[in-house]
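Retro notes, structure queue

What went well: the backlog is down to a handful. What didn't: a couple of records were mislabeled last round, so from now on we paste the full input next to the output in the thread. Example, using Aldehyde dehydrogenase (NADP(+)) from Mycolicibacterium brumae:
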Amino acid sequence: MTDTATTVALDEVLSRAAAAATEFAAVDPRERARALVAVADRIDAAADELIATAMTETGLGEPRLRGEVRRTTWQLRLFAEVIAEGGYLDARIDEADADYVIGPRPDLRRVNAPVGPVLVFAASNFPFAFSVAGGDTAAALAAGNPVIVKSHQGHPALSRATAAIVVDALTEAGMPSGTFALIEGRDNGIAALNDERVRAGAFTGSTHAGRMLADIAAARPTPIPFYGELGSVNPVFVTEAALAENAAGIAAGYVTSVSGSAGQLCTKPGFLFVPSAQALVGPIVSAAEDIAEHRSLTVPITRGYQERRETLLGADGVDAVVPGSVRTDDDGYGWATPTFVVTTVAALASGGEDLLEEAFGPLSVIVEYDDADALPELAQRLFPGNLTATVHTAAGEESAELANLTAALAGIAGRVIFNGWPTGVSVTAAMQHGGPYPAATVDSTSVGTAAIGRFLRPVAYQNAPQSVLPPALRDDNPWGVPQSRRGAGLSGQWGSLSGRY
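Corresponding output:
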């Protein structure tokens, strides 16, 4: 395809999405819900074929991919439930009140509205759950926005097959033409992000690429929100009592979490802080011996991991516990076994980015600490933004040091985990998958039902006739959504309600 033909095709995609925006926003949420379920059903029906394609393109195993398909389709069904219920619209009605204590109040009605066409950049490491029909797509469609997905070059055939299913399912469900489209290529992605018809962006990937795209979104004549999930090292802290109580269990869980999917997970624990590594070395070595080599997702990921691993293994004050290995095939893909190294707090602090940067692959750093009281300050200084932070404690352990550490970790991570491991992200209402920069460009969530809020904007109507109000704000409430209504004559009671203070 020539550059001119590509430009014409992209312009058509953007024009159709912009044309569909108003019509799709006006679709009854229950109809949108049925459309999301239709997409899920079609993906499930094609799962065998899709998984075979994914295995070839990504090197991921069938059990992992089957689980990911299940997560993807049930994620769509979960969003269907949320929008059918309607609470996400947050419909608020303040009735006109001539006696309002601050001054006469007009009739005010506020509701969440779709932002408009959303551009989603698919991820490499979750070819279903964070790709064409993944979480960002599900959230944006649920909110009532047309979606344009820029496919990831790591699984192009799978992306095309999935996109065809999504388009067919939405069309058969009666959704407007232009509600969903797939584009390919870096230049098309950047051009779409710069286009005024795109009203929000979402991304999962590297810090470098995500920050570049976020800067483009912010530098537009009309800046748009850009929700990027970037880098995270997900530090884990083990108390002295926990190490004494469960060293073998912690070692086994650690190796499993680091090596799963060849460490190509945004929640992989990159650092494990322990009062002494001696009790863990034997169990870690033993557990790592059972981990077979695993292929990297892409050739660039192979190169990046090789460079990062060589830097760590050659750094001052760093010793290999399990050296691991990386071999490359004729196509440039890497096949890795896990690498574990050990260092000290002093070496980690003095090593700077050479030691602190994320390693996207099966590598993790064990850090020996001497002073538990220093861990809160250390965590805040070395790890300012993460998706997760984890604490392992002994049964019933409580202390001021633990409370201080927990408070510090809540300031640097979106999810604080106790006695578990950060890999494995539950798709549910209370999940938070985001965090302070560089974990994310905006500290919101890309997983769970709260993710829908990223692609909505509040609009208020003052003294508007019933006939022009959105359905969610009308007195007859044709969509049947929850409405928070505040009647007249209540403001004089402020501050005197029994039992409220």
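Agreed that this is the format going forward. Reviewer comment attached to the example: The radius of gyration is 25 Å.
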